[in-house]
Amino acid sequence: MRDEAQVARAVAGARAVINAVSLYSEHGDTTFERVHVVAASQLAKAARQAGAERYIHISGIGSDSRSRSKYIRARGQGEEAVGAAFTGATFVRPAVMIGKDDALLSTIARLARTLPAYPLFGHGETRLQPAFVEDVAEAVARLTIGEARIKAGPFEFAGPGVYTYRNLVLEVARLLGVQIRLVPIPFPAWYALAALCEFVPGAPLTRSQVELMQIDNVADAGRPGFDDLGIESHSLDQVIRAILEKS
Questions:
Q1: pTM (2 decimals)?
Q2: Domain end among 44, 69, 94
Q3: Which range of residues forms the domain containing residue 29?
Q4: pLDDT tens across 102-138, in order?
Q5: Are residue 3 and residue 69 in the same domain, yes or no?
Q6: Closest of 134, 143, 152, 147 to residue 18, by C-alpha
C-alpha cells in the first residue's frame, strides 16, 4: 500500500478500485497519517491515472478531520485527500462490523463464557449499531459493479438495532444462554492497558479502539445506507445464530 510502484501495478487495467486498508496502532513510520491519508491519496491517484471508472474508499462512521483523536482525524483527512485525488470517489462508512471471528462479538462471547465478571468500557453507555460484515461486503459489491445509483454524500452502513455497549453485552450473553455480572472499568485504566497491549504482536487492544469506544457508533439517518441499495440488513440475533450454526 505504501509502495507507489506496487500500487501502480496492482491497479493497472482495473475498472474499479476498493481501498479497505486500515491501521489501529502506529509503529515506526507506519503511522495513521501515512496509511490513512498519504497512502490512500496515492492509491486514489494511481486509480485515476490507470483509468478506473469507480473508486470505493472504506472509512468508518465518525471519521472527522477535526477530531482530537489522531486516528479519527486521520480517517477524516483521508476522505478529504481521496476526494481531491479521485473526483467522484464513493465513500463507505460502516459501523462496527460483526461476523464470525470478528473483534467485537467473538470477544464478548469468549469473555462472557470464561470470566466470572465482565469488564465494561466505562459504564457501557456508548451506543453501537453493529453491521453484519457480509451485508457491508454486499453493499460494496453493488456499488462497485454499478447496480446501485450512487447518491451524493458518504454511505453509512449499520444494522437495524442500536444498543448501548452494556445492553449489547447482555444481549449476546442472553443469546448464548450465559449469566454474567458486569463490572464498569474507567477509561483511563483501559488506555493504560491498551498502551501495553500495543507492544504485543497482533495488538489485542489499542488506544485507538479505546477512543472509539467513547464515541457513539450510530449511522446518520440522513445519509444513504443499506435501504438505498435494496439490502435488508441482518439483526444481531440473526448474526449470532448464524455464527453458532457454523461453529
A1: 0.91
A2: 94
A3: 1-94
A4: 889 988 988 999 999 999 999 999 999 999 999 999 9
A5: yes
A6: 143
